[in-house]
Specification:
The chain is built from 15 helices and 16 strands. It is α+β, with helices and mostly antiparallel strands. Strand 15 and strand 16 form a beta hairpin. Helix 5 crosses helix 6. It is extended.
Length: 387
């Protein structure tokens, strides 16, 4: 009994001294995990203790516990890792990049690199308020178009989107910027042919590696200068701008390809609303097929003008995200003299039109000609025939 108490006391003392390590393999107390980000961002060596990193040894001991009114021994393990300081750490290791930036000369951030050598793309990120992501100590990979490529893209974009108009197209600009960032350190040594990686924008980019070892992103963007190694990530210079789905699909094409909107698209097609494929921006409220099934409108009895009026009632001029609609409370539609009112309930956006209401099921679907919000009812206007 006495030996067991002594052993448990020693174990608690080891815990207090932080010889054990949490799930990330480093000691919590030994390098001040809660406050280390401030050191990484200001590029100051963390000098108040040691860091714990592999190689680690797993040690075993037995703890005396009571089970079903009987004392028994229970097997326990803990890990003991090698301790480092900034004077002894290997500067090529990831721990040195984070906690000894001054000693090891790892003070350059992704933001510094882009501002020095990719000024056009850096300016684009800065005006969108995304520069802070590249100053963060979290590891990221940036696929940065060179200045000539990005400037030419902004001046000669072939889409309806104007990537220089932040007031009208801000959401699309953020979408484009985040499509060039991956939330992990990714060097060309880690890339294999056909590999897909999720971007900070939320969709994947695909890599192709040719027989010479040259890496392409989405087939048409070559990595011309790979593996620019930075303290908080990697930069790859590319010779084409990466276009997210929002830049490649129009509202017309999205609804045409959507299996949930076949009835609505048939109405648009019959009414010749092809301007949704070439002009913009427009915000569209798109009812699902189920919404048409529940509707009491007799669509077969609609005249041509009634069909156009009904469709125009589902469209607002300009790009309007859900939070903007909520703040505005009311917006005029393309149907002259008719507007829609907006309110929120239980974190859902609702549309009020006359005595009716509709819930926004899916919001903020970006296309190259605007924004789509999926709604659960057909927005009815007065004077339409009923079944």
């Amino acid at each position: 009994f006495t030996m067991s108490k002594i052993f448990n006391t020693v174990y608690l003392l080891l815990l207090f001294l932080n010889i054990t390590s949490p799930s990330d393999g480093h000691s919590y107390r030994s390098y001040g995990y809660k406050n280390i980000n401030s050191y990484s961002q200001s590029c100051i060596d963390y000098r108040w203790g040691t860091f714990m990193e592999a190689p680690c040894t797993t040690l075993t001991y037995y703890k005396r516990v009571k089970r079903r009114r009987r004392w028994t021994r229970e097997k326990k393990t803990y890990r003991k890792c090698t301790a480092y300081t900034c004077d002894t750490v290997d500067c090529d290791s990831d721990i040195a990049r984070k906690y000894c930036p001054q000693t090891c000369g790892w003070c350059t951030t992704l933001s510094d690199e882009l501002n020095a050598n990719f000024t056009a793309f850096a300016s684009f990120l800065d005006q969108l308020g995304l520069d802070y992501k590249l100053r963060s100590p979290e590891q990221r990979t940036v696929f940065a178009p060179d200045d000539a490529t990005f400037t030419d893209f902004l001046e000669n974009s072939t889409t309806v989107i104007d990537y220089t108009d932040i007031d009208q197209w801000r959401a699309h600009m953020v979408d484009l910027a985040l499509y060039h960032i991956v939330h992990q350190r990714l060097t060309t040594d880690n890339i294999i042919d056909g590999m897909e990686v999720c971007t900070s924008q939320g969709t994947d980019i695909t890599f192709t590696v040719d027989t010479n070892g040259t890496v392409f992103v989405n087939n048409d963007s070559e990595i011309t200068t790979p593996d620019i190694d930075i303290r908080n990530g990697v930069v790859h210079s590319i010779n084409n701008v990466l276009l997210p789905p929002s830049a490649l699909t129009t509202t017309w094409e999205y609804l045409d390809q959507s299996a949930s909107h076949t009835t609505f698209f048939e109405l648009l097609e019959n009414a010749n609303f092809t301007f949704l494929d070439t002009d913009g921006p427009f915000t569209m409220f798109a009812p699902t097929n189920d919404a048409f099934d529940r509707s009491t409108i007799d669509f077969n009895a609609l005249t041509v003008n009634q069909t156009k009026d009904l469709l125009n009632y589902h469209i607002i001029s300009g790009n309007h995200l859900s939070y903007e609609l909520f703040k505005a409370r009311q917006k005029e539609t393309l149907l002259e003299g008719m507007s829609l009112k907006f309110y929120a309930r239980y974190y859902k956006l609702y549309i009020k039109y006359g005595p009716y209401q509709s819930r926004v099921k899916s919001k903020n679907i970006l296309t190259s000609t605007g924004v789509i919000h999926v709604v659960d009812t057909v927005l009815r206007i007065p004077g339409l025939p009923s079944m």
